[in-house]
Write a structure and sequence with these properties.
Blueprint (H helix, E strand, L loop, with lengths): L4 E4 L9 H16 L3 E6 L9 H14 L8 E2 L4 H13 L3 E4 L3 H14 L24 E4 L6 E6 L3 E6 L7 E3 L7 H11 L4 E5 L3 H14 L5 E5 L2 E2 L15 H6 L4 H10 L12 H7 L10 E2 L2 H14 L2 H15 L8 H11 L6 H7 L1 H4 L7 H4 L4 H16 L5 H14 L4 H13 L7 H7 L2 H9 L3
Parallel strand pairs: 1-2, 2-3, 9-10, 11-12
Antiparallel strand pairs: 4-5, 5-8, 6-7
Helix pairs in contact: 1-9, 3-5, 5-6, 8-10, 11-12, 11-13, 16-17, 16-18, 17-18
């Protein structure tokens, strides 16, 4: 049996779509589960729209989510000479022909089909050209001579047996007028050269599979097995597009989604293993199979992504979480002062409480990150004479202690509660406002223990 080999083959004509990331993930997991190879192929033959920045974004996105390809990425445009050789071979064997239809003729054919309310299929005018005069001013395209009678079948590893009537497949173009090969031809040649055994891709490629299968058969090449994954739909139920707000990995990175959480979510988006929801990376590889993929489209659910992300934030080790937080902050917010790092690391265990994203942790940690506390006018009104006296008395006791811990903090708080005839909130709220700028936030003990003693003294003195 051949070594299992899969590939992910994006075009660098825009940022990598989240549906593409899931396709890459399924290919990668299938290969790893079968101890095979996973390759990345950049299909950059669309010269006008292909850009280096998009190629970089694709590679960076896959790297961020932990999908590592084997060997160096395969760049399709470097193999065009081989693609053209196969076109010549198909011509010689009688499986392809030159079509001299002008753009105007093709346009008229399309308009005619539109008026009749039927899908456009090229009329095969040049398929049998013995009675036609070759025009002198038209560069031909090369078309593949598709089967006309009968049916074709693909035994899809996800969808089951798919059967279509051959006549609905047009004689598709394999070489453009400018001499550049098309996707249908290049994809087959590259998959053959790369010894791809399984082509796993979106089910919008089903018709392409029937076209490409004919090229394999014409060349007498081994045909890979095909698996077509249902597409991802937006929360509104329409096909997810690059115009949707959360359509690329960058969209999720910006709001502070962890790579492990997004990978776990995408794994479960259209795939299941019993009732299991959370998968480690090793479990994902060990348990993944194509049988677990459903046949219906999956709907992107932002609330579910946030829920899984919250789970990962809660269960990650604090130093590792801080590392992710630091990268996030320095990329999208501001550089973290090295003097604040220790405070942030020891505070991660409570800063992550109720946090669904790294953005939430960033907001929760503002009182540590800020050099100067800004108190809103609404909260400042709560700092009346009684509250200021509580802050003053706390500061007096606080400065007497050389070491601050939870035990002596509790003693100070209880003393203040008794002295000012109030309750815990009556003492805690003014201190929280003075130290963080808001009546909302972490517990008062956590706040005090997370800040440097001199910083606490400075902030409390600024109130009186």
């Amino acid at each position: 049996m051949s070594l299992v080999a899969t590939r992910f083959a994006p075009s660098p004509t825009g940022p990598l779509h989240i549906g593409g990331v899931r396709t890459a993930l399924f290919n990668w997991l299938f290969s790893k589960n079968n101890k095979g190879k996973f390759y990345l192929r950049i299909e950059d033959t669309d010269k006008e729209r292909s850009k280096e920045e998009f190629k970089k974004q694709i590679i960076d996105s896959l790297d961020w989510i932990g999908i590592n390809h084997d060997d160096k990425e395969y760049v399709q445009s470097k193999n065009i000479k081989k693609h053209k050789e196969i076109v010549d071979e198909l011509l010689k064997k009688g499986f392809a022909y030159k079509c001299y239809c002008s753009e105007e003729e093709i346009k008229k054919q399309k308009e005619k089909c539109k008026k009749q309310g039927i899908p456009y299929i090229y009329n095969r005018k040049w398929r049998d050209s013995k009675d036609l005069e070759i025009p002198s001013n038209v560069e031909p395209v090369i078309r593949f001579k598709s089967k006309i009678p009968g049916n074709s079948t693909v035994n899809d590893l996800v969808q089951g047996e798919i059967n279509i009537t051959n006549s609905i497949i047009e004689d598709f173009v394999i070489l453009r007028k400018d001499g550049s090969p098309t996707y249908q031809l290049s994809a087959v040649v590259d998959d053959h050269i790369m010894k791809i055994t399984h082509v796993i891709r979106g089910d919008d490629h089903k018709i392409n599979t029937f076209k490409q299968k004919q090229i394999y058969e014409a060349m007498k090449w081994d045909i890979p097995q095909f698996a077509h994954i249902p597409l991802i739909h937006s929360e509104e139920g329409s096909k997810l597009s690059k115009r949707d707000k959360a359509s690329t990995i960058d969209d999720f990175i910006k709001i502070g989604i962890l790579s492990d959480a997004l990978r776990n979510y995408l794994l479960r988006l259209g795939w299941a293993h019993k009732d299991k929801e959370i998968f480690t990376l090793d479990e994902s590889i060990k348990l993944f199979d194509l049988k677990g993929i459903g046949k219906s489209p999956s709907k992107l659910d932002m609330s579910r992504i946030l829920s899984i992300n919250e789970y990962y934030i809660k269960h990650i080790e604090e130093k590792k979480l801080f590392k992710f937080f630091k990268i996030y902050s320095e990329k999208f917010k501001k550089k973290i002062d090295p003097s604040k790092e220790n405070s942030l690391i020891k505070s991660m265990n409570f800063l992550k409480n109720k946090a669904k994203t790294l953005e939430d942790i960033y907001q929760n940690s503002q009182y540590i990150l800020q050099e100067k506390i800004q108190i809103s006018s609404e909260d400042f009104k709560l700092l009346d004479v009684s509250s200021k006296n509580i802050i003053k008395d706390f500061l007096a006791e606080f400065e007497k202690n050389s070491e601050i811990n939870k035990k002596n903090l509790e003693e100070m708080m209880n003393t203040l509660i008794a002295k000012h005839k109030t309750n815990f909130k009556g003492v805690g709220q003014p201190l929280r406002i003075a130290l963080t700028g808001s009546k909302f936030g972490p517990g008062i003990y956590n706040i005090i223990l997370s800040l440097d003693k001199n910083e606490i003294t400075k902030r409390l003195k600024a109130i009186n």
